[in-house]
Design a protein that fits this description.
CATH superfamily of one domain in chain B: ABC transporter involved in vitamin B12 uptake, BtuC
Strand content of chain B: under 5%
Radius of gyration of chain A: 19 Å
Largest interface: A-B, 36 and 34 residues
CATH topology of one domain in chain B: ABC transporter involved in vitamin B12 uptake, BtuC
Number of strands of chain B: 0
Largest sheet of chain A: 6 strands, mixed
Number of domains of chain A: 2
Largest sheet of chain B: none
Number of helices of chain B: 13
Number of helices of chain A: 7
Shape of chain A: globular
Order of helices and strands of chain B: HHHHHHHHHHHHH
Strand order of the largest sheet of chain A: 5-6-7-3-8-9
CATH architecture of the largest domain in chain A: 3-Layer(aba) Sandwich
Order of helices and strands of chain A: EEEHEEHHHEHEEEHHEEE
CATH class of one domain in chain B: Mainly Alpha
Helix content of chain B: over 70%
Helix content of chain A: 25-40%
CATH superfamily of the largest domain in chain A: P-loop containing nucleotide triphosphate hydrolases
Oligomer: heterodimer
Chain lengths: 268, 276
C-alpha cells in the first residue's frame, strides 16, 4: 500500500515556491531519510502532509486520502520546539498534554490512556523520565520524551523533523535505533529529516533528497551521485565514498557541514 | 493564643465579609495564576492590572462602580493583547509601553475627578475590609464565570502552552486559546484587585502558583497547591492584619514573598535516576 503519494505537487509559502511539480510515492512501512540543504522544503513537505499547508497545485495523498489537520494516523515531532527551561512539570504530564489536547474541557486520562503512555515510554526507554520535571532533563532526555509522545496512539506514519539536532552522538544513535525498531516491528512508515546522511545509512530504506524546488526519491546508490545532487544543489557536487561513509562535497567542502550558506538561496 | 481571640475576629461582620471575599478571590487567583506562570506571562498579568487602574478611575469619573471599569478595561485590553500577540515581535516592550500609558490615563481621570482621589488608594492597594455582602455575591458570580471559562479551555490551553508547534499541527486554534486565556486573566485580575489592589495582584496570582510549581511537578497537585497557598496566604494575611493593625495587602504580600522564597530553598526531592 502507498503511504504518501505526490503527483505534480507544488508547494508555496507566500510568493516563494518551495517545491515545484514534485511527484513520488512512499510505500507503507518504508524508512525514508529526508535530506537536502536548509530551505529545500523538508519542513514544508511535512507540514503539507499534516494538512497545514494545502498544495497550490497537484495532488497529495496520505494513505489514499487528502491530508487533514489533526490526523490521528500521523505522529509528528516538529523541528521548532518551544523550550520552557524553568518548567517544573513532570515528563508524564508534559506528554499527556498532547493526548486529545485539541478537545475542549478539563484534561482527564483514562486507564487505557495511561497504559498507552507507559507503553510508549518503555518503548523508547524513557520510563524513568515520567516522574522527573522537564527542567531537570538534558536535551537528549527531552528528545526521547518527545519521541515517546509522537508514538502515542500507535500512528501509521511518523514525521520526524530533525530529531537529531542538538543531540550528542550516543543519543543520536539511540533515537535512530528506537525509530528503526518501531519501523520494523510495527510497520510504521517513517519520514526522518536530517542534516547528515551517514548516521542514517544503516537504518533507512530510501532517501528523499530535496533541493532547488525538486525532489528525488531512491536508494542511496541511486540518489547520492554527483550528477543527481549537482542538479539539486544547482552547483557542482562531488560524492566521495570512504570506509562506508559518503561525503557530499561542493568546491572541496562538505555541504552537510556548511548548511548555512544555503539558507537564503533564492528560487527562480 | 486562646480561642477567645479568634472568636473576637469573627464577631465583626466586616471580618466575616473579608474572609469570604478573600477566600473566593484567592482560589480563583491561584488557579488562573498557575497557568500564567506556566505560560511565562506574568508580566502580561501585571500590565492588565495597571490597565485596570485606568478603567477603575475612568468608571468613577462617569459615576460607575470601579469594579465594572476594571472589568471593562482589563477584558478589552486582554482580548486586544491576545489578538495582537503574533504581530508584536517584542512583547515585553509593547506591554511596557501600554502599561505606562494606562497608568497615565488613570492619573488623568483622577485629575478631573478629585473627589475620587480618596478611593484611588483603595484601587491601588486594595480595601478588603470594606467589602459588603453585595460585593461578595458579585465576586462569587464572577469567580464561577472565570473558573468555568478556564475549565472550558483548559486542555487545549495546556497543550498550546507546552507545545505550540505540535498543538497547531493537531488543529488547536492557538490564537483563540491565547486570547480566551487573557480574557480569563483579565477577569481574575479584576477580582484580585478588589482584595489586594491593582499594584499587588502578583501577591495572589504569581507568588502562590510559583511556589506550588517549585514543590510539585504534577499538574493536578500543582493546581491544588497553588489554590491552597493563595487561600492560606489570604486568610492568614487577614488574621495577622486584624491583630497587628498592619494593612491587609501588606500582610498578604509579605506571606506571598515568604512562601515563594521558602519554596525556592526547599530541598527538591529528585526521583531516582536509573541508568539505561
Amino acid at each position: 500500500m502507498t503511504a504518501i503519494q505526490l503527483d505534480r505537487v507544488t508547494l508555496r509559502i507566500g510568493a516563494r515556491t518551495v517545491l515545484r511539480e514534485v511527484s513520488f510515492a512512499i510505500e507503507s512501512g518504508e524508512f525514508i531519510g529526508v535530506l537536502g540543504p536548509n530551505g529545500a522544503g523538508k519542513t514544508t513537505l511535512m507540514r503539507a502532509i499534516l494538512g497545514l499547508l494545502p498544495p497550490s497545485a497537484g495532488s497529495l495523498r496520505v494513505f489514499g486520502e487528502s491530508p487533514r489537520r489533526g490526523d490521528r494516523q500521523i505522529g509528528y515531532l516538529p523541528q521548532v520546539r518551544t523550550v520552557l527551561p524553568d518548567l517544573r512539570l513532570r515528563g508524564r504530564d508534559f506528554i499527556a498534554s498532547s493526548l486529545n489536547g485539541e478537545r475542549w474541557g478539563v484534561p482527564s486520562l483514562s486507564r487505557a490512556d495511561r497504559g498507552m503512555i507507559d507503553e510508549t515510554l518503555d518503548l523508547v526507554g524513557a520510563r524513568d523520565l515520567a516522574a522527573r520535571p522537564l527542567s531537570d532533563m538534558s536535551g537528549g532526555e527531552r528528545q526521547r520524551l518527545l519521541l515517546a509522545q509522537a508514538l502515542i496512539g500507535k500512528p501509521r506514519l511518523l514525521l520526524l523533523d530533525e530529531p537529531l539536532i542538538s543531540l550528542d552522538a550516543r543519543h543520536q544513535e539511540i533515537v535512530i535505533e528506537v525509530v528503526r525498531q518501531v519501523n520494523r516491528e510495527r510497520g510504521v512508515t517513517v519520514l526522518f529529516s536530517a542534516h547528515e546522511l551517514n548516521q542514517l545509512i544503516g537504518a533507512l530504506d530510501r532517501v528523499l533528497y530535496l533541493g532547488s524546488g525538486r525532489a528525488v526519491l531512491g536508494t542511496v546508490e541511486e540518489v547520492i551521485r554527483a550528477p543527481v545532487l549537482s542538479a539539486l544543489y544547482g552547483t557542482d557536487i562531488q560524492v566521495v565514498r570512504a570506509e562506508g561513509h559518503i561525503f557530499v562535497m561542493a568546491r572541496g567542502r562538505d555541504v552537510e557541514h556548511v548548511e548555512h550558506q544555503h539558507e537564503h538561496r533564492h528560487h527562480h | 493564643m486562646s480561642t477567645g481571640t479568634i472568636t473576637d475576629m469573627f464577631a465583626y461582620e466586616f471580618m466575616n465579609n473579608a474572609f469570604a471575599a478573600a477566600g473566593i478571590v484567592a482560589v480563583v487567583s491561584g488557579l488562573v495564576g498557575y497557568f500564567l506562570v506556566m505560560r511565562a506571562q506574568a508580566f502580561a498579568g501585571h500590565a492588565l492590572s495597571h490597565i485596570g487602574f485606568a478603567g477603575a478611575t475612568g468608571a468613577g469619573l462617569i459615576g460607575l462602580a470601579p469594579l465594572w471599569g476594571l472589568i471593562g478595561f482589563t477584558l478589552a485590553a486582554g482580548i486586544a493583547m491576545g489578538l495582537m500577540s503574533e504581530r508584536i515581535s517584542n512583547r515585553d516592550v509593547a506591554i511596557g509601553v501600554v502599561l505606562a500609558l494606562a497608568l497615565g490615563f488613570g492619573l488623568l481621570f483622577l485629575h478631573y475627578y478629585t473627589a475620587f482621589a480618596t478611593q484611588a488608594t483603595a484601587i491601588l492597594f486594595g480595601n478588603v475590609l470594606a467589602v459588603d455582602r453585595r460585593t461578595i455575591a458579585t465576586l462569587g458570580l464572577l469567580g464561577v464565570v472565570t473558573l468555568a471559562a478556564l475549565a472550558a479551555i483548559m486542555r487545549p490551553l495546556i497543550f498550546a502552552s507546552l507545545q505550540p508547534e505540535l498543538a497547531e499541527a493537531k488543529s488547536v486554534p492557538l490564537r483563540f486559546v491565547g486570547t480566551a486565556f487573557l480574557a480569563v486573566v483579565a477577569l481574575a485580575v479584576s477580582e484580585c484587585a478588589q482584595i489586594v489592589g491593582v499594584l499587588l495582584v502578583f501577591a495572589l496570582m504569581v507568588g502562590p502558583p510559583a511556589a506550588a510549581q517549585r514543590l510539585t511537578s504534577g499538574l493536578w497537585s500543582g493546581l491544588t497547591l497553588a489554590a491552597a497557598f493563595a487561600l492560606a496566604e489570604a486568610w492568614l494575611g487577614l488574621t495577622i492584619a486584624f491583630y497587628s493593625d498592619w494593612p491587609v495587602s501588606f500582610c498578604i504580600a509579605l506571606l506571598s514573598a515568604l512562601g515563594y522564597f521558602l519554596a525556592l530553598g526547599w530541598p527538591v526531592r529528585r526521583a531516582p535516576v536509573t541508568v539505561a
